[in-house]
Predict the 3D structure of the following.
Amino acid sequence: MPSVLLTLSDVVADDFDVPGKRLREIIASALDSRRRRLDDTHIALRIVRGKRQDMLGEIEIEVFAQWFLDRWRSRDARAHEIARRSCEATGYGCACWINLGTVGYSRATVDGRDFYSD
């Protein structure tokens, strides 16, 4: 389950309604592969604020995802797709990084269901 740190610069209006579902869809489709099918419900999105003078874009997207060979080989193309499509969706310039690593994952729900990385 990829997690995303979305940093909005001070150029982005305080009342900007972040299109979270749309951004999660964009990120999921860019990370999707035959081995790992993803949709917007697989992406955790965390939003913070920053100063534009310290950033590379009005919006920065840092994706932390599990390492897979096909993701590693195409990481720059995937980051470009996320940045380009996010720019179109938000109307702001976007920079994107994809950080791939070995991760473990588990989630438990109040109704007793458990989810794990596989």
Observations:
- The first helix runs from residue 20 to 31.
- Strands lie at 3-9, 44-50, 59-66, 94-101, 106-108, 114-116.
- The chain has a mean pLDDT of 92.
